[in-house]
Design brief:
homotrimer, 247 residues, seven-stranded mixed beta sheet, alpha/beta
């Protein structure tokens, strides 16, 4: 069984809009043998900070040598830099606006390159298709594009790589993900002025009851059994979460 | 032309959330040569009953030997069983909570196995990724995982395999699918207190007019030409439909 | 690097419904080696006119010999014709209701065929799966289905192939696409009674400010930096846009 290299798409392009399809048309031309996986296209709009925490948690779950095309880029077309990086054995390509900074900081072996190349045609509003997809395709094909990249020592924009005690994602069930990792089960967690109890999973609390758990990518998540934590507690992206660690 | 085996995903994970991408990362590692098709990720949340009727109707439309990864699993992480089954020449893997019971009951050749294996890492909230995807991948690669399965004679949870005269799905147009099959065209159908006439397709009734038809997977569906039956008649998942068969 | 032929799906089937998965099951059987790309499944419902302008703009961005399965088909099941066509080196298959007429008119080399074949099983509400997918698969496999097609000189339904100065799509950010191409940067643009200034991209205007730009597929688009043009200005599909060309 030969493993097929994965190109994972992580964007705020929206799952219902044509942007993802346009990117995939480019990848079909430039990396036809690789497998493209839609990881997330609903990163909170215009929010590289939430996106950076999500990407760091989600990408750990992918096979070695996966290539992440990561684009949450409200500054597209303005003079912000773009970068490629290798961290934890996986590749990341995207804007230098902080989006890749947390995954970069959390690995010891991180190597960084600034993208110095410009394609012949570059839409000022769609570098995801015209620039990042082509660099990601080169890497995914195993043809590292040295001539298009310059090694660098640091990113221009770096977010704090520690935990973020805020809501960073709300899924369609209404579960609220936070940017907090490694919480002991005796911690006291509250949000929206209410305490949340711990449970391992949904079926261990009553219907409609709120609780917190460590989710499948290692983040503290607030949920309601068979209901929506966001609707029940009025939670939204950016809301603070209080965590009192007892051990 | 060699036929590529299909792994079909049927879940309530949501088309916009990262859960499907995390499952696909596992499938890319463990079944890299198979083709993954997103069948439905908006099975009504927490509703294995509606899901069971949808799965039975939709799966009949897939090629022989397709493998369905079917997960609507509000009890994930609690001590409910998980199963693999072969029915009508297709494979199904998922929780033993009724979701697979209708497809199992509607075929004569159904064979059942309880999943007795646990993976090294098992998130209490994401058996779809950590357990079901791996079993589905084994089967899809043609390496039946005998050591991970025990033959069994029956499911723990079985829904009535007859028709369900209720709304089981509402699509984005607002069309309301029911769990009713094989209705003669002279049947009298009503819902939300209103009679519906029969038409073969949308263009045979006036704009804004309601009607019923047998949809492309054999289920009775309520619709409005160029409009939303759900909005027009206030229909929602679980609403009863009255059917008076005249022949 | 061998290029894999792309089958692009362009429909109003909805990204969250099971219709796309049912089409892909057919394509997996009949064109297993080709790559299927979801271009857009949220073409405005029942609106072949907006769809025709979107398709003409979006398809230009795809590799030569791509095959478009294009279905926005409120008249499905009624006696409207279906067609296959080759335009600009790409293939298109769908209903003869105007949806393909703009891409046909905008290329000099367009060749048209009427689909004269009927499959054994044909759902009156889902020609996308039962008819168009099979024709598209034949073409994508390189086995042109001459016996299923009759050459023809013109489409039954033809929309004006010039620009359409109306909103034809609203994306999830709230950006409003129009059917207008090739506007000089000194043009005066207004919509919803408000003038819009030009900017190359989002980051060049203030947060919350409206502007217009030429988008990544060549269409004039109305947007708000880090906000929704649709919500800010009350824009919806079909709304007129005023363009005064000064040069």
């Amino acid at each position: 069984m030969s493993v097929k290299l994965v190109i994972a798409l992580f964007t705020d392009f929206g799952a219902r809009d044509p942007y993802v399809g346009l990117v995939k048309a480019r990848l079909a031309e430039h990396a036809p043998a690789q497998q493209v996986v839609d990881l997330l296209h609903d990163v909170p709009d215009f929010n590289p900070h939430a996106g950076a925490h999500l990407l760091a948690a989600l990408s750990d779950d992918f096979p070695p040598a996966s290539v992440f095309l990561a684009v949450v880029d409200p500054g597209v077309g303005t003079p912000r830099d773009s970068v490629a990086l290798l961290a934890g054995g996986r590749w990341f390509v995207g804007p230098d606006n902080g989006l890749l900074s947390i995954v970069a900081a959390r690995h010891d072996d991180t190597r960084l390159w600034r993208i110095s190349w410009l394609p012949e045609t570059l839409s000022p509003t769609f570098h995801g298709r015209d620039l990042f997809a082509l660099i990601a395709a080169d890497i995914a094909r195993g043809e590292f594009p040295s001539s298009k990249l310059s090694p660098t020592n640091r990113l221009n924009v770096e977010f704090d790589a520690g935990d973020l005690a805020r809501v960073i994602y709300i899924d369609h069930y209404g579960n609220a993900w936070t940017g907090v990792r490694r919480v002991q089960l005796d911690a006291r967690v509250s949000a929206a002025g209410k305490p949340f109890r711990h449970a391992d999973s949904f079926g261990f609390v009553g219907k409609g009851e709120g609780f917190w758990f460590i989710n499948s990518v290692g983040l503290l998540e607030l949920a309601v059994n068979r209901g929506s934590a966001a609707a029940t507690f009025g939670l939204k992206i950016g809301d603070p979460v209080q965590i009192q660690r007892l051990s």
